[in-house]
Amino acid sequence: MALGYVRPAGSQDAGDIARIQLTTWRVAYRRLLPKQVLDSVDVTWLTERWRESIEAPPTPRHRVLVAVEQAEQSYLVGFAAAGPADEQALAPGEEPGALGPDVAAVTDLLVEPRWGRRGHGSRLLSAAVDLWREDMFGTAIAWAYDADAATRKFLGSAGWEPDGASRALDVDDLLIPQLRLHVSLADAPL
Asked: N-acetyltransferase domain spans which residues (predicted)?
């Protein structure tokens, strides 16, 4: 079993978060997302977006958490970002505000593939659930790529289920289907 923990992200973590995100996309989603799109992502630009998210979140209920692996030295190996559901969480045709103020939306939950299956994703999700409950959210949602069986299985093992909503992301003129998963925070395991 891996030794690790989760903590709130600090601005000094932005570069590692961007690296983890880009590495994970390039490894885990290489058959899902177009190579030219993955190759064109600028890590410096991504780092600045994460720094902004950490230093100036839209609300106090928007949070970025990081997972740390402890070995001879510590490594940042994963992260989660979430906040109140906004227009990005809506399915096509849903009206703004349709999800309600008590719904948390996961925007990212990634563990670098080489650090996978060591409990980091579960620790990130558990820490997020604790914070969502503290923030008085009743439900959480997350969009998953339809072809991303690993994410759907991981969330499903924690009680998340499809809520019937679907959409397709247009990535470089390629439509990539997604489905929305949800979980009641009253029922979610810790």
From this structure: 23-182
In the chain the domains, ranked by start, together with CATH numbers, are: 3-184 (3.40.630.30)
pLDDT at residue 138, as a whole number: 96
**Contact assessment for residue 55 and residue 10, using Cβ atoms and an 8 Å cutoff:** no
- Cα–Cα distance between 140 and 124 in angstroms, integer? 14
Q: Which two tokens stand for residue 168?
A: 């397709």
List the Cα angle 61/165/25 in 5-degree steps.
65
- Write the single-letter amino acid at 113: P
Sequence-ordered alpha helix ranges (H) in the chain? 14-28, 35-40, 43-55, 120-134, 149-157
The count of residues in the chain is 190
Specify burial of residue 150 (Cβ count, 10 A radius: 0-12, 13-18, 19+): middle
Q: In whole angstroms, what is the distance from residue 96 CA to residue 170 CA?
A: 21
Instruction: Report the Cα 39 to chain-centroid distance in Å.
Output: 21
Between β-strands 74-84 and 3-8, what pairing exists: parallel, antiparallel or unpaired?
A: unpaired
